[in-house]
Amino acid sequence: MSEPVEVTPRESSVLRISLRTAAIMLAFTLVFTALMAGTYKATEPLVAASLLAEKLRLIGEVLPPGEYDNDLMADAIMLPPQGSLGLDDETRIWRARKQGAPAALVFETAAPDGYSGRIGLIVAVAADGKLIAVRVTAHKETPGLGDYIDPKKDKNKTRPWITQFSNLGFDTVPVKKWRVKKDGGRFDQMSGATISARAVTNASGRALAWAVEHRDALFALPANGRFEERKP
Protein backbone atom coordinates (compact mmCIF):
# COMPACT_ATOMS: atom_id res chain seq x y z
CA MET A 1 0.00 0.00 0.00
CA SER A 2 1.52 3.30 -1.09
CA GLU A 3 2.05 6.14 1.32
CA PRO A 4 -0.37 9.12 0.93
CA VAL A 5 1.21 12.07 -0.84
CA GLU A 6 1.57 15.05 1.43
CA VAL A 7 1.06 18.48 -0.07
CA THR A 8 3.15 21.19 1.47
CA PRO A 9 1.61 24.60 2.25
CA ARG A 10 3.71 26.13 -0.54
CA GLU A 11 2.47 23.58 -3.08
CA SER A 12 -1.11 24.10 -1.91
CA SER A 13 -0.73 27.85 -2.39
CA VAL A 14 0.70 27.42 -5.88
CA LEU A 15 -2.18 25.10 -6.81
CA ARG A 16 -4.77 27.59 -5.58
CA ILE A 17 -3.13 30.40 -7.55
CA SER A 18 -3.01 28.25 -10.70
CA LEU A 19 -6.68 27.32 -10.40
CA ARG A 20 -7.63 30.94 -9.76
CA THR A 21 -5.60 32.08 -12.78
CA ALA A 22 -7.20 29.43 -15.00
CA ALA A 23 -10.66 30.46 -13.83
CA ILE A 24 -9.92 34.12 -14.54
CA MET A 25 -8.58 33.30 -18.01
CA LEU A 26 -11.64 31.18 -18.78
CA ALA A 27 -13.96 33.94 -17.63
CA PHE A 28 -12.03 36.50 -19.68
CA THR A 29 -12.24 34.27 -22.77
CA LEU A 30 -15.98 33.79 -22.37
CA VAL A 31 -16.61 37.51 -21.86
CA PHE A 32 -14.36 38.45 -24.80
CA THR A 33 -16.08 35.93 -27.08
CA ALA A 34 -19.50 37.23 -26.05
CA LEU A 35 -18.42 40.83 -26.67
CA MET A 36 -16.99 39.97 -30.09
CA ALA A 37 -20.16 38.12 -31.06
CA GLY A 38 -22.26 41.04 -29.91
CA THR A 39 -20.08 43.53 -31.78
CA TYR A 40 -20.29 41.46 -34.97
CA LYS A 41 -24.05 41.19 -34.64
CA ALA A 42 -24.35 44.93 -34.05
CA THR A 43 -22.10 45.91 -36.97
CA GLU A 44 -23.36 43.27 -39.42
CA PRO A 45 -26.06 45.57 -40.89
CA LEU A 46 -23.49 48.37 -41.27
CA VAL A 47 -21.06 46.06 -43.06
CA ALA A 48 -23.82 44.80 -45.36
CA ALA A 49 -24.89 48.38 -46.11
CA SER A 50 -21.28 49.36 -46.85
CA LEU A 51 -20.82 46.43 -49.25
CA LEU A 52 -24.08 47.27 -50.99
CA ALA A 53 -23.06 50.91 -51.34
CA GLU A 54 -19.73 49.87 -52.86
CA LYS A 55 -21.44 47.57 -55.36
CA LEU A 56 -23.86 50.33 -56.36
CA ARG A 57 -20.95 52.76 -56.73
CA LEU A 58 -19.11 50.38 -59.07
CA ILE A 59 -22.25 49.71 -61.07
CA GLY A 60 -22.91 53.44 -61.28
CA GLU A 61 -19.51 53.95 -62.93
CA VAL A 62 -20.52 51.84 -65.93
CA LEU A 63 -24.31 52.17 -65.98
CA PRO A 64 -26.02 55.54 -65.37
CA PRO A 65 -29.08 55.27 -63.06
CA GLY A 66 -31.32 56.72 -65.77
CA GLU A 67 -30.71 53.68 -67.97
CA TYR A 68 -32.87 51.38 -65.83
CA ASP A 69 -35.80 51.46 -63.40
CA ASN A 70 -35.65 48.06 -61.69
CA ASP A 71 -33.91 46.94 -58.49
CA LEU A 72 -30.56 45.62 -59.71
CA MET A 73 -29.78 43.83 -56.47
CA ALA A 74 -33.10 41.97 -56.50
CA ASP A 75 -32.81 41.07 -60.19
CA ALA A 76 -29.31 39.57 -59.98
CA ILE A 77 -28.38 36.04 -61.00
CA MET A 78 -25.47 33.82 -60.02
CA LEU A 79 -22.58 33.22 -62.38
CA PRO A 80 -20.29 30.24 -61.69
CA PRO A 81 -16.55 30.52 -62.48
CA GLN A 82 -16.03 31.44 -66.12
CA GLY A 83 -12.65 30.83 -67.71
CA SER A 84 -13.55 32.93 -70.74
CA LEU A 85 -14.13 35.90 -68.43
CA GLY A 86 -11.07 35.25 -66.27
CA LEU A 87 -13.26 34.49 -63.25
CA ASP A 88 -12.13 31.81 -60.81
CA ASP A 89 -14.89 32.41 -58.27
CA GLU A 90 -18.66 32.57 -58.37
CA THR A 91 -20.02 36.07 -58.84
CA ARG A 92 -23.22 37.88 -59.81
CA ILE A 93 -24.65 39.42 -62.93
CA TRP A 94 -26.87 42.43 -62.39
CA ARG A 95 -29.66 42.75 -64.93
CA ALA A 96 -30.96 46.21 -65.77
CA ARG A 97 -34.45 46.66 -67.18
CA LYS A 98 -36.41 49.69 -68.36
CA GLN A 99 -40.20 49.45 -68.19
CA GLY A 100 -39.84 45.68 -67.97
CA ALA A 101 -37.70 45.33 -71.10
CA PRO A 102 -34.04 44.18 -70.98
CA ALA A 103 -31.72 47.18 -70.88
CA ALA A 104 -28.24 46.01 -69.89
CA LEU A 105 -26.09 43.40 -68.18
CA VAL A 106 -23.51 44.43 -65.61
CA PHE A 107 -20.87 41.96 -64.51
CA GLU A 108 -17.28 41.54 -63.45
CA THR A 109 -14.56 40.16 -65.66
CA ALA A 110 -10.78 40.08 -65.55
CA ALA A 111 -7.66 40.30 -67.67
CA PRO A 112 -5.21 37.70 -66.32
CA ASP A 113 -2.35 39.00 -68.46
CA GLY A 114 -1.68 42.49 -67.16
CA TYR A 115 1.95 43.62 -66.89
CA SER A 116 1.86 43.06 -63.13
CA GLY A 117 -0.77 40.34 -63.02
CA ARG A 118 -4.53 40.17 -62.92
CA ILE A 119 -6.61 43.26 -63.75
CA GLY A 120 -10.15 43.24 -62.38
CA LEU A 121 -12.85 44.90 -64.49
CA ILE A 122 -16.55 45.65 -64.38
CA VAL A 123 -18.50 46.10 -67.62
CA ALA A 124 -21.98 47.09 -68.69
CA VAL A 125 -23.28 45.70 -71.97
CA ALA A 126 -26.51 47.08 -73.43
CA ALA A 127 -29.25 44.76 -74.63
CA ASP A 128 -28.57 45.95 -78.18
CA GLY A 129 -25.02 44.57 -78.02
CA LYS A 130 -23.04 47.73 -77.31
CA LEU A 131 -20.50 48.00 -74.54
CA ILE A 132 -21.81 50.90 -72.46
CA ALA A 133 -18.66 51.26 -70.37
CA VAL A 134 -15.83 49.39 -68.69
CA ARG A 135 -13.90 50.31 -65.55
CA VAL A 136 -10.96 48.86 -63.66
CA THR A 137 -11.77 47.57 -60.18
CA ALA A 138 -8.35 46.22 -59.15
CA HIS A 139 -4.84 46.21 -60.61
CA LYS A 140 -1.14 46.31 -59.76
CA GLU A 141 0.10 48.03 -62.90
CA THR A 142 3.17 50.25 -62.68
CA PRO A 143 2.36 53.69 -61.16
CA GLY A 144 2.84 56.47 -63.67
CA LEU A 145 3.14 54.04 -66.56
CA GLY A 146 0.54 51.29 -66.93
CA ASP A 147 -1.92 52.57 -64.36
CA TYR A 148 -3.52 54.92 -66.92
CA ILE A 149 -6.01 52.10 -67.51
CA ASP A 150 -7.66 53.37 -64.31
CA PRO A 151 -9.40 56.70 -65.04
CA LYS A 152 -8.62 57.88 -61.51
CA LYS A 153 -4.90 57.60 -62.36
CA ASP A 154 -5.12 58.65 -66.01
CA LYS A 155 -3.64 62.11 -66.52
CA ASN A 156 -6.08 62.77 -69.35
CA LYS A 157 -9.12 63.80 -67.31
CA THR A 158 -11.00 65.16 -70.34
CA ARG A 159 -11.11 61.81 -72.12
CA PRO A 160 -9.54 59.01 -70.07
CA TRP A 161 -8.06 56.16 -72.09
CA ILE A 162 -10.61 53.59 -70.95
CA THR A 163 -13.58 55.63 -72.23
CA GLN A 164 -12.67 54.85 -75.86
CA PHE A 165 -14.60 51.56 -75.54
CA SER A 166 -17.85 53.25 -74.53
CA ASN A 167 -20.93 52.73 -76.70
CA LEU A 168 -19.13 50.54 -79.22
CA GLY A 169 -20.22 47.13 -80.46
CA PHE A 170 -19.13 44.61 -83.03
CA ASP A 171 -21.35 46.34 -85.58
CA THR A 172 -18.98 49.33 -85.53
CA VAL A 173 -15.75 47.62 -84.45
CA PRO A 174 -15.43 44.07 -85.85
CA VAL A 175 -14.16 41.38 -83.50
CA LYS A 176 -10.80 41.18 -85.29
CA LYS A 177 -10.35 44.93 -84.80
CA TRP A 178 -11.10 44.83 -81.05
CA ARG A 179 -7.39 45.11 -80.32
CA VAL A 180 -4.84 47.83 -79.66
CA LYS A 181 -3.42 49.59 -82.70
CA LYS A 182 -0.02 47.99 -82.18
CA ASP A 183 -1.73 44.63 -82.83
CA GLY A 184 -3.57 45.94 -85.89
CA GLY A 185 -6.72 46.93 -84.03
CA ARG A 186 -8.82 50.02 -83.45
CA PHE A 187 -7.83 51.14 -79.95
CA ASP A 188 -5.04 53.43 -78.76
CA GLN A 189 -2.35 52.45 -76.29
CA MET A 190 0.16 54.54 -74.41
CA SER A 191 3.75 54.35 -75.58
CA GLY A 192 5.80 52.13 -73.30
CA ALA A 193 2.78 50.55 -71.63
CA THR A 194 1.20 48.43 -74.33
CA ILE A 195 0.81 45.30 -72.19
CA SER A 196 -1.64 46.95 -69.80
CA ALA A 197 -3.72 48.39 -72.63
CA ARG A 198 -3.66 45.13 -74.57
CA ALA A 199 -4.88 43.15 -71.55
CA VAL A 200 -7.83 45.47 -70.86
CA THR A 201 -8.74 45.81 -74.54
CA ASN A 202 -8.79 42.06 -75.14
CA ALA A 203 -10.67 41.36 -71.90
CA SER A 204 -13.34 43.94 -72.69
CA GLY A 205 -13.78 42.41 -76.15
CA ARG A 206 -14.14 38.93 -74.68
CA ALA A 207 -16.68 40.21 -72.16
CA LEU A 208 -18.71 41.90 -74.89
CA ALA A 209 -18.70 38.76 -77.05
CA TRP A 210 -19.72 36.61 -74.08
CA ALA A 211 -22.60 38.91 -73.12
CA VAL A 212 -23.90 39.08 -76.69
CA GLU A 213 -23.75 35.29 -77.03
CA HIS A 214 -25.62 34.57 -73.79
CA ARG A 215 -27.82 37.68 -73.56
CA ASP A 216 -31.18 35.97 -74.09
CA ALA A 217 -30.45 33.13 -71.65
CA LEU A 218 -29.18 35.54 -69.00
CA PHE A 219 -32.27 37.74 -69.12
CA ALA A 220 -34.60 34.71 -69.17
CA LEU A 221 -33.42 33.28 -65.83
CA PRO A 222 -35.51 33.96 -62.72
CA ALA A 223 -34.09 36.32 -60.09
CA ASN A 224 -31.36 34.63 -58.04
CA GLY A 225 -31.17 31.89 -60.67
CA ARG A 226 -27.88 30.33 -61.67
CA PHE A 227 -26.50 30.54 -65.18
CA GLU A 228 -25.17 27.30 -66.61
CA GLU A 229 -23.50 27.48 -69.99
CA ARG A 230 -24.76 24.81 -72.35
CA LYS A 231 -22.10 22.48 -73.64
CA PRO A 232 -22.09 21.88 -77.42
Structure, explained:
35% of the residues lie in helices and 20% in strands. It is an alpha+beta fold. The protein folds into 2 domains: 7-62; 67-220, no CATH class. Strands 1-2-3-4-5-6 form a 6-stranded antiparallel sheet. The protein starts with 8 loop residues before the first helix and ends in a 12-residue tail after the last helix.
Map the helices and strands:
Elements: H1 9-62, E1 76-79, E2 91-98, E3 101-114, E4 117-126, E5 130-138, E6 168-169, H2 194-220
Antiparallel strand pairs: 1-2, 2-3, 3-4, 4-5, 5-6
Query: What is the H/E order?
Result: HEEEEEEH
Poorly predicted spans: none
**Helix- and strand-based class?**
alpha+beta
Say what oligomer this is. Answer: single chain
Number of strands: 6
Number of helical runs? 2
Helical content (DSSP H or I, runs of 4+):
25-40%
**Percent in strands:** 15-25%
Number of spatially distinct domains? 2
Strand order of the largest sheet: 1-2-3-4-5-6
Distance between the termini: 83 Å
Major beta sheet, specifics?
6 strands, antiparallel
Look at the structure and give the mean pLDDT. 87
Radius of gyration: 28 Å
Characterize the overall form. elongated
Name a few traits of the molecule.
single chain; 232 residues; alpha+beta; 2 helices; elongated
Brief account:
The protein is of the alpha+beta class and 232 residues long. The protein contains two helices and six strands.
